[in-house]
Design a protein that fits this description.
2 copies of one chain form a homodimer. Chain A is α/β, with parallel strands linked by helices. The first copy, chain A, has a single domain, classed as UDP-N-acetylmuramoyl-L-alanine:D-glutamate ligase (3-Layer(aba) Sandwich). In chain A, strands 6-5-1-9-10-11-12-13-14 form a 9-stranded mixed β-sheet, with helices on both faces. In chain A, strands 3-8-7-2-4 form a 5-stranded mixed β-sheet, with helices on both faces. The longest helix of chain A has 16 residues. The first copy, chain A, is globular, with a radius of gyration of 18 Å. The two termini of chain A are 23 Å apart.
Chain lengths: 336, 336
């Protein structure tokens, strides 16, 4: 095995978030008229994006994208990280690229030219701090196998991919290409199941991946139950334990469970001093976990770091932070 | 006098803010290399904007611009408001226009095409919550007299303009045109002095305006002392009292002073539960004040509303909020 240049590579939809607060009534009204499931991610087209933007209030823009958020955390903690994903040659593309590079992430996927604009996700945060996402993929949907840089994938200890990639055929090919290169080079592949509805849309694909092509799975309680159509979280845990060597399952305020062979490690959540916005909680958990995993920490410490970062992110608006995260790593236990 | 359609019209630089935290060391280093005065606003060109963007960390984008921030507050409180300023036909221009319209502001200045991009202000927030601004004017600098819509100006009770407009000749002409139309229609003109260095750059112009062309002046302690080159705040108060019929002078945590003829009304500041970022504090004060002034509140209530809004804005990152501000007006005293 050749040496690795990156601890973690993220592959996913390159998105800029448009964040605003909204009432439950607003979500209910939008749901009735156009379909908008509270707490879930709905894909929207250009026309609907314009309409929705016209309906929401004053907003804030912040780089987002599930895997990109995770990678920003990994790099923020001080690891070597890379990202592959597609933005356009436009101002929001500049924003996305700047924010990754500013946290030290290697990002060199060629920009999309003269076609769709950079993707954006309209995130409505309700008074309960829950986020409801509406994604216009734009240029992100044009990510394809050709964008996968072999030298980047082969140089990463872990390639981490979001399940959302499966919403587009070309991106699915890109996903497969990453997986092939990683495995051919003896690297590991991690998958996030992204969203319960995304799991419903791609259950067979995801089951096949978890069975045969993935080393580490990240999911929340609803996603893992949706994957195996179980009635209880416990049943889903036992099924996934037999399928994949390392699994991290998040449960919001109930913490998380790490499953590795016979081991089951329960990780406590850390209550935020003020819960502001759950956007990016799972992404941040995965970021903390993967930093620990690729830097020699034991699994308990990986989970604890995941909890710490998730709490940091839900204590503020949006999925990214410009805080110095390096001190978060202090005092955690390295694997013996 | 014909009836008014707008309570307040704002005229100023149309800007999107790029907000990030930075250390005092970073500011000192940038100051040494390129000139960057802590707490002040520095104008920068395209090249410097790119360089600075490359040097700062993960950022958040939010609509800004001094007068535009004020107008967003006025509209957020429930008044009829309009804005005149120049953005380009680009994504940041869309962001700026969306955020004004989303708060109910009438905004129909034609966009600049095929020329400079929408202006942006790189705002560095230091650990003391002070903001240091670096403005690339872009399209905002192309604002000129032709952009001034007579039907909008003549329909506004008060036309509020930022001193920053004086940094460009064409914008200065635009300023004069607004002032002429407003006065010809028996409306009032308000001016914010913007920044002590802006006052230094345009002292004679500003003195002439305050003496002859302005009904309401907004300034902070440093700006009014810079305008009259006085050694004490008290001296500056007495000079401006003789020049202008209504003056609101802000002093940060020391509150504000409203001067109207023989009256001197002291307004207390309201301590924020957590001071996060002083960006937009003066803009928000002016917004609260002007809402009150144009809606029949007495001067004390105008100042109190200014304090309330300033405190709201400094309790968060950035100069705008998507909170419902309408309840801020409750319980304040109308003029008898």
């Amino acid at each position: 095995m050749t040496s690795t240049k990156f601890d973690v590579l993220g592959v996913g939809n390159a998105i800029v978030d448009v964040l605003t607060h909204a009432s439950d009534e607003f979500i209910a009204e939008q749901n009735e008229k156009y379909g908008m499931m509270k707490g879930a991610m709905t894909l929207i087209d250009t026309e609907r994006a314009e309409q929705l933007y016209g309906d929401i209030g004053q907003a804030t823009e912040m780089s987002g994208g599930s895997a990109a958020n995770t990678i920003a955390i990994v790099a923020g903690l001080g690891a070597e990280a890379a990202f592959i994903g597609k933005v356009a040659e436009d101002q929001l593309g500049d924003v996305f690229a700047h924010d990754l590079k500013a946290t030290g992430v290697h990002f060199s996927t060629p920009r999309l030219k003269n076609n769709h604009p950079t993707g954006r996700c309209f995130i409505l945060v309700t008074p309960d701090a829950q986020r409801t996402m509406n994604t216009y993929l734009g240029a992100a949907a044009e990510f394809e196998a050709e964008d996968v840089q072999e030298n980047v994938v082969s140089a990463a200890k872990v390639s981490y991919m979001e399940g959302y990639l499966f919403d587009k055929e070309a991106a699915k090919d890109g996903y497969r290409r990453v997986s092939e290169i990683a495995r051919a080079n003896g690297r590991e592949v991690a998958l996030s199941l992204s969203d319960p509805f995304c799991v419903e849309r791609h259950r067979e694909d995801f089951q096949d991946l978890v069975d045969h092509h993935v080393d580490i799975v990240f999911a929340n309680e609803q996603e893992i139950m949706a994957l195996y159509q179980t009635e209880t979280f416990e049943e889903a845990q036992e099924i996934v334990r037999s399928k994949c060597k390392l699994v991290a399952l998040t449960r919001g305020p109930k913490g998380s469970v790490i499953i590795s062979g016979n081991q089951t490690i329960k990780i406590d959540a850390i209550e935020p001093s003020e819960l502001k916005d759950t956007t990016g909680a799972g992404d941040a958990y995965a970021g903390g976990f993967l930093y620990g995993y690729t830097n020699g920490y034991d699994l308990k410490a990986c989970g604890d770091l995941g909890s710490l970062l998730a709490t940091e992110i839900i204590s503020q608006m949006g999925p990214r932070t410009d805080k110095d995260l390096k001190n978060f790593v202090e005092g955690l236990k390295k694997a013996s």
